[in-house]
Request: fold
Amino acid sequence: MQQVQRPYTVMLIVPTGIGAAIGGYAGDALPVARSLAQVADRLITHPNVLNGAQLYWPLPNALYVEGYGLDQFAAGEWGLRSVHQNRVGLVFDQGIEPDLRLRHLQAADAARATLGLNLTDYVVTDAPLGVELRTAASGATWGTIQQPDSLLRAVDKLMTQAKAEAIAIVARFSDDLGSEALQLYRQGQGVDPLAGAEAVISHLVVRTFKIPCAHAPALLPLPLDSSLSPRSAAEEIGYTFLPCVLVGLSRAPQFVVANPAQPFSEKDRSEKGQSNSDTIWADQVDSLVIPATACGGSAVLSLSQTSTQIIAVSDNKTRLDVTAHHLGLTVTPAHSYLEAIGLLVAHKAGISPHSLHPSLTHLQPLPN
Reply:
């Protein structure tokens, strides 16, 4: 009888706002996700990887998980329960001008009419959110919002009155047209100036309400630039970044909170009646793929304490220098994502990568 293999689960992380050579721009890690999804039975990744403004790609075996939720999942605190459909609620920042809000509402209506997405009525925050952008010494970006309570009240209203099951947020960001950071980003050389602040917004909502959430910034269209980088171009083909967010949230997994007293194993969950074939837990992640210089994230550190294979890709350079060597982590190095895909194929097949090299050393006795 042929042995039944459990689903092979891969997590792909490209952290937001750190200038990753692949995944630091407008959905430019999506080809990586599409490729990994051909190897994995289940691919777990986050909006920074899958969002390409008005561009997106349906991946039936991919789970769209916001960054804070991804960290909680990797720590074993939350599970991911697959869904067929979410009712997506839409929050607009009061600071968005009427014409720009209308552009986004038309994009939302188009997603309903053309893609068949299930959206609730929307809510406008009771105060402008006041998004402020920041840049760290490393060049990584982050940010703050002046009125977080206004955002939380809007989300609560969508959940309680409209029964929203996932939240899309559109906040007004500054149009800093002349900044050097923006010009570098448009040329494919800089760090996304908005990404860090976007992460702060979605983290706040997911941490507070334990609900899928993603963000789309509201900006005025930029002047045409004939030297625009292909990696940045997806953000400049329309008036809104909202379509990819709505598509991702429409089938984003719901979070299942683990019992703190419950031992961290699928066997124990099953005995307690909490196991569900549609719910994935961190101990089911077979491989994690990350940039080699971005090993310090919470999810990476959590999964490094498990049997998960961690593949560190060296040619996806970032503004960080947090390597496995610095942290004392055991990882499998890969020069490129193409090499990482080969490692995943071998791992899924139960083949040692050493067996694929032309020379194979003899087994040696362990020292006394």
About this structure: The chain has two domains: 9-83+254-356, 88-250. The longest helix spans residues 98-115. The CA atoms of residues 47 and 66 lie 6 Å apart.
